[in-house]
Amino acid sequence: MGTPDLGGGPAGTDHAAHGGAAGIPVDQLREPPGPADVDLILVARAGRVTLASGRVVDGFTLNGTTPGPEIRAVQGQMVQVRLVNENVAEGVTLHWHGYDVPAGDDGVAGVTQDAVGIGGSFVYRFRADQAGTFWYHSHQVADPQVKGGLFGALVVTPREALGDTVDTTALTHLYAGRRTVNGLEGDVPAAGAPGQRVRVRVVNTDNGPVQVWVGGAPYRLAAIDGTEVTGPTPSTDSLAVTAGGRADLEIDLPADGAGVRVELGGASAVTFGRPLAPTPRPAAELDPLHHGTPAALPFDPAAATRSFDYVIGRRPGFLDGTPGLWWTVNGHLWPDVPMYVVRKGDVVRMHVENASGELHPMHLHGHHAVVLARDGVPATGSPWWTDSIDVQDGHSVDIAFVADNPGLWMDHCHNLAHPGEGLIAHLMYE
Ligand code: C2O
Ligand code: CU
């Protein structure tokens, strides 16, 4: 980890074990080998890419496409993915964004594994215990690789089937500044008969938030970051989906076949039913902090055994020897940033505060945190479980989680240009 950034270490070299829990090397915190229920090979390639829309960009593919194949599993299944690097000079990895995999499968180059060099491969294995909407992406020089298309959706459906709900993924991405949905541009029609219920899984793979709203029918915010919202009421508000975050929207399509549009930033839409003209963004914004109905948490945040501050700032200085205007964590420049040390079983509280002049979508690896408060105002709605949360400039959030996944985990900004400018810290188990 000599450099900040999401990876950037040497590719494909043999490595000494990295640090982990109670002296256990991270690369030993893994699922043992064995048969898998979902088993696939993903081949990463750099070069000219033809999007589903027909547009040609410079970028990356997995098995010849970007986004890469959607990985679908049923809750409880074992998932195994062999990543092969065909020609990506900088090396590649796969990180399972939002999935609490064993640390050795987290795909963080320089922390949990070395990047996979050309001709090399790495096998990821994890048990798909949590149902929900997630995604995967390279975590080696991630800004250009994710911008260029090295990602795909990961959907785990619940053991009890979704009934006759139509299940659609809307993976949105900016390729060279243009908004796409599943690689397509403009209006993207989706399946769904009049009167049917659809679940639209919005995945934001950008470096900034995307405003999502639904024209033609109300929606229910069924899940955030792969966790169900309890008691969501129908809404017509706009919803900000954080960079790296996911939102599952449930919509009952009108029985008369009238058009419905899931608007993604106003530039692209997933459409159902008869044609409907683009709808303007509603002025009101849904706030998950006060949406849905409260429910018991599986732990007591008031009984926290560790409390940390993660204060984001910005100042001129030398970052690892390079002069510039850099992000700081608790006033420090990389690499002099906090290592948040926990013990398995700890209830951890973290106060994340942004005084840096810019929005940061903060992403914690390996754990799901519940949002307790924003700017000191306590949550009143459904438990809001998150792995990716916007922290606006001049604002703060308080989160809590249980340290239940030993290893060494990143906690960084998911505007992927920012980790390379110092906005990274780590969580380590003692
Ligand atoms: Cu989606 Cu550390 O990344
Ligand atoms: Cu940032």
Topology:
Blueprint: E1 38-50, E2 56-62, E3 71-74, E4 78-85, E5 95-97, E6 121-127, E7 132-137, H1 142-147, E8 151-157, E9 166-175, E10 178-181, E11 187-189, E12 197-204, E13 210-215, E14 220-224, E15 227-228, E16 239-241, E17 246-252, E18 260-264, E19 268-272, E20 306-319, E21 322-329, E22 339-342, E23 347-354, E24 360-364, E25 369-374, E26 377-378, E27 385-386, E28 388-391, E29 396-402, E30 408-413, E31 424-429
Parallel strand pairs: 1-4, 3-8, 9-12, 11-19, 20-23, 22-31
Antiparallel strand pairs: 1-2, 4-6, 5-7, 7-8, 9-10, 12-17, 13-16, 13-18, 14-15, 14-17, 18-19, 20-21, 23-29, 24-28, 24-30, 25-26, 25-27, 25-29, 30-31
This protein binds CU-O-CU linkage (C2O) and copper (II) ion.
Describe the structure.
With 430 residues, the protein is mostly beta strands. The chain folds into 3 domains: 26-157, Sandwich (Immunoglobulin-like); 166-286, Cupredoxins -  blue copper proteins (Immunoglobulin-like, Sandwich), CATH 2.60.40.420; 301-429, Sandwich (Immunoglobulin-like), CATH 2.60.40.420. Helix content is 1%, strand content 43%. It is built from 1 helix and 31 strands. It has one helix spanning 142-147; strands spanning 38-50, 56-62, 71-74, 78-85, 95-97, 121-127, 132-137, 151-157, 166-175, 178-181, 187-189, 197-204, 210-215, 220-224, 227-228, 239-241, 246-252, 260-264, 268-272, 306-319, 322-329, 339-342, 347-354, 360-364, 369-374, 377-378, 385-386, 388-391, 396-402, 408-413, 424-429. The strands form 6 sheets. Strands 20, 21, 23, 25, 26, 27 and 29 form a 7-stranded mixed sheet that branches. A 6-stranded mixed sheet has the order 10-9-12-17-14-15, with no helix packed on it. Strand 25 (369-374) and strand 26 (377-378) form a beta hairpin. The radius of gyration is 21 Å and the shape is globular. The chain starts with 37 loop residues before the first strand and ends with a strand. 51% of the residues are buried. Residues 13-17 have low confidence and may be disordered. Bound molecules: CU-O-CU linkage and copper (II) ion (CU). Copper (II) ion binds next to loops. CU-O-CU linkage (C2O) binds at residues 6, 95, 97, 137, 139, 244, 363, 365, 410, 412, 414.
